[in-house]
């Protein structure tokens, strides 16, 4: 099948969806990679909320923030949490420091949970904490590959956020996830030569089977939404 004939899933971020030629493919896996403060979680929540508005069920798994912090972030944006929480939206906090529990929950229990609630959109925020559970690089690569392949059997579209490498804002923390997913969205800061102001910018680095914008575009995190200015240029 021609990729352009496949069903698209929108983020609900107008400028970003246009950069993605209408959205990511339904059932695909996308990674949002960015350094601290770039809004990875906010982009992921916007993706979840767009699905909820369309009547879909969603799961948001946090390996970092407490569930009440996620709830607070949703409410702060003026989104209707009460309508969805524990009905069509399920927010789950996992503790990545408990090795055995975290690995089993993510690898074994998550697929079962997705099927039991009928979730069409799933977020893991951030996947880099799951990667960090494995201290051996070979094991990390193997376990991440197995997880990705297992998730491809589920009837959902998956977003994985990832921190960047400490000294490289263009690569994920372990430089693995971008090779295994279908779409990579990079969030970063651009600093003008005069250092007068920092501009957050988004780039679609990779999108298998689809045309996509290769331009770097500015964005802004507003109170109730993310706004990507797809017609503007970053200076």
TrEMBL record:
Pfam family, one: ATPase
Chain ranges of the KaiC domain: 7-235
Keyword annotations: ATP-binding, Nucleotide-binding
SUPFAM superfamilies from the UniProt entry: P-loop containing nucleoside triphosphate hydrolases
Transmembrane feature ranges: none
Record-given protein name: Putative circadian clock protein, KaiC
Domain of life: Archaea
Molecular function GO terms recorded: ATP binding
Keyword Protease: no
PROSITE patterns: KAIC
């Amino acid at each position: 099948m021609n990729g352009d004939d496949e069903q698209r899933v929108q983020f609900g971020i107008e400028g970003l969806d246009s950069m993605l030629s209408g959205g990511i493919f339904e059932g695909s896996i996308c990674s949002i990679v960015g350094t601290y403060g770039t809004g990875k979680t906010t982009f992921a929540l916007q993706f979840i909320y767009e699905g909820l508005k369309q009547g879909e069920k969603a799961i948001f798994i946090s390996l970092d923030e407490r569930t009440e912090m996620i709830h607070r972030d949703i409410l702060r944006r003026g989104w209707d949490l009460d309508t969805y929480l524990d009905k069509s939206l399920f927010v789950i906090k996992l503790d990545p420091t408990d090795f055995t529990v975290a690995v089993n929950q993510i690898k074994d229990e998550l697929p079962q949970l997705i099927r039991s609630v009928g979730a069409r959109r799933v977020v893991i925020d951030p996947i880099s904490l799951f990667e960090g559970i494995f201290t051996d690089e070979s094991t990390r690569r193997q376990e991440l590959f197995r997880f990705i392949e297992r998730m491809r059997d589920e009837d959902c579209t998956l977003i994985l956020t990832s921190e960047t490498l400490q000294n490289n804002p263009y690569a994920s923390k372990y430089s693995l996830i971008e090779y295994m997913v279908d779409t990579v969205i990079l969030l970063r800061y651009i600093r003008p030569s005069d250092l007068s102001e920092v501009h957050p910018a988004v780039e679609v680095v990779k999108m298998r089977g689809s045309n996509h914008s290769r331009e770097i575009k500015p964005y802004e995190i507003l109170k109730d939404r993310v706004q990507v200015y797809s017609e503007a240029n970053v200076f």
